[in-house]
Amino acid sequence: MGVFVYPGSFDPVTRGHMDIIDRAAVLCDKLIVAVLTNRSKTPAFSMAERLDLLRTAIGDRPNVEIRSFDGLLVHFMENEGAKTIVKGLRAVSDFEYEMQMALINKHLDPTIETLFMMADAKYSFLSSSAVRELARHGGQVDDFVPAGTASVILAKYDRS
Ligand code: COA
Fold it and tell me: What domains lie within the chain, and their CATH numbers?
C-alpha cells in the first residue's frame, strides 16, 4: 500500500479529480494530492486559491493530504518517501502525454511506478479548462465541480 501521490495543476479541482482521489485513497495508506506547476500552462487560479478549493473539496477524508511543490515530481516523491504516482486517464488522447511523463519519471527514478486509473465515463469529457470556460461565460458549473466550490470558482469570474 504505502504512500501514493496524485499530482496535477488542479486549476480548479473538478469532480473528475475527486473520483480518482476517492478510488485511489482506498488503495493506499496515505494519498497526497500534490499541486504542482505545469510550466507549459499559465494557471487561472493562484496556488493559494487552488489549495483552498482542494481543502473544501477533500474535507476530512482521513488519509488524504494536500501539498504544493515547485519542482520536479520525482523530487517531491523522494522528499515524501512515496513510490507510486496516480494519474487518471480520460481518453486515448491522454495516453501519449501520460506515457511520456511516466517514462521520464521512471528514467529519473526507476523505483517510482505510475498507476493509471480509468476516469469514470461520466467525467471522461471533463477538464479544468472546460470548467473555466463555463465559469467565464456564466454557465452552470455545479455538476462538474465538488460541492462548496462552485461559488468560489464563479466569483473568480464575477459570476457568483
Ligand atoms: N477528470 C477530469 N479531468 C481530469 C482528470 C480526471 N480524472 N485527470 C486530468 N484531468 C484534466 C485536468 O483538469 C487538466 O485539465 P486542463 O488541461 O483543462 O487544465 C488536464 O486533464 C491535464 O491534467 P494533468 O494530466 O493532471 O496535467 P496537469 O497539467 O494538471 O499536471 C503535472 C501535470 C503538474 C502533474 C506535471 O506537469 C508535473 O509533474 N509537473 C512537475 C514537473 C515535472 O516533474 N515534470 C515531469 C518531468 S519533465
Answer: 3-124 (3.40.50.620)
